[in-house]
Amino acid sequence: MITKNIKTVIFITLVYLQAFGQVQNEPITKWFSDAKLGMFIHFGLYSEPAGEWNGQRTGRGDYAEWLHMQGNWPYGIEKKEYQKLAKTFNPKNFNADAWIKSAKEAGMKYFLITAKHHDGFALWPSKVCKYNVVDATPFKRDILGELAKACEKYGLALGFYYSHWQDWEHKGGAMPPHITVKSETLHPIVSDADFESYWQEKCLPQVKELMLNYKPKFFWFDTWMRSPHITEHRVDELIKTVKEIDETCLVNSRIGAHIPGIKDKVDYISMGDNQVPNKGEKKVWETSFTSQNSWGYHKLDFKWKDSGEIIKVLVQNAAHGGNLQLNIGPKGDGTFPKPNVKRLKELSAWVAVNGEAIYGAEPSPVEDPDWGYITSKTLKNGNTKLFLHVLNSKPGMEIDLKLPYAPSTSISPKMLETGESLYWYPQHKKMNIVMPHFVVDKNVSVIEIVLNHNIHERAERLKKIEAVKFKAK
Ligand code: FHN
After folding, report:
1. Ligand 1 centre distance from Cα of residue 328 (Å)
2. What would the mean pLDDT of 22-44 be, rounded to a whole number?
3. Dist. CA 272 → ligand 1 center (Å)
4. Of 82, 142, 329, 349, which has the fewest Cβ atoms less than 10 A away?
């Protein structure tokens, strides 16, 4: 009887919330914009040769995942030769649980993997094409299936990168947009009829298969320049394929980066590779950021970014309303390269004490200061908490926080990590704050300030007053 009553109360509450908009109004992108940090993985046949072919480094751009086209530069590797990699692809130490656990520990809220990259090879047992991990390799395990289970276990949202434009396996898939050697064009553009056959026979059915088999929360499609094949009609068709199965599954803007108005068609915006903008977008957005120069693991690429740089990009994006998707290229045996293991641990240490300043945070109406970035949160009582992310802090250094109005003297800034209260003094429309004498974090130290009002509302009001004054003049 009691259980029945509880069920009825829950049902009525849900109906009420639906009817009055609280559930309905929550955008489908809310989880994504709250998340702020995700893991991106480039893993495939190219992970074993890792940027080297017959003792030679990959040409141009140093992208290990481009080996098929950039090994034996500029000619690329013959299809038959490249595809032989499948016969020995056997990442024996691949452990989905370990990957997702380390993403979780590093503070990542979602996980994105190359289900199919440009080489056309699928990391799941696709019924659409035998060029996949179960049918074509000795490994014979459903990598995506294992990862999907681990994501569920650790509570991470799962997403798939799917190369819908470039596909070097299917005869109709788009080929690299270049190159003329001794007046011969290496990859003549595929005809629209051939591309259409790829689109109908492989791309759309595989995306459907991914949707039905693994129920991803988002897709990351990849174009980065004008393409005659990726027309508005095809973009609409692809979006429809996803949304017909789950309308809450998110789709990114690089599904058709060159199409005018693309941002209005999609759920979130993907920046260019490693692009960290100085201001936000109207929609939620993300930067995909490499750990090395290459996306896939490259054994000769030593340009590893340090964790300080990664954390700075994380806070810069958060302050502008965007996410950071940190890319990792696992090695051919299925393990993460040592520099990644180290950086994930460092990231984990930073978010463990400063996560509050990132997750679910919003930009503040204060413009970027010269010492770092600012995020904000609205507290339950409507007041604002500001988080000041101070880069490269020095002992006793003074920073100033410019406010849209004179600061109230009851404000008390504190270090988020240690709880130390900081000395500060008001000036006209600004607070001067003195940093601790012991540096809290050499990369990004965070100060929290609880305001006794809502800064967004106040800034809005002031803007309106200014506008009225301006009109009156
Ligand atoms: O060509 C790909 C590249 O290999 C990688 O996947 C990146 C990720 O953003 N996207 C393309 C280049 O922009």
Report:
1. 13
2. 91
3. 9
4. 349
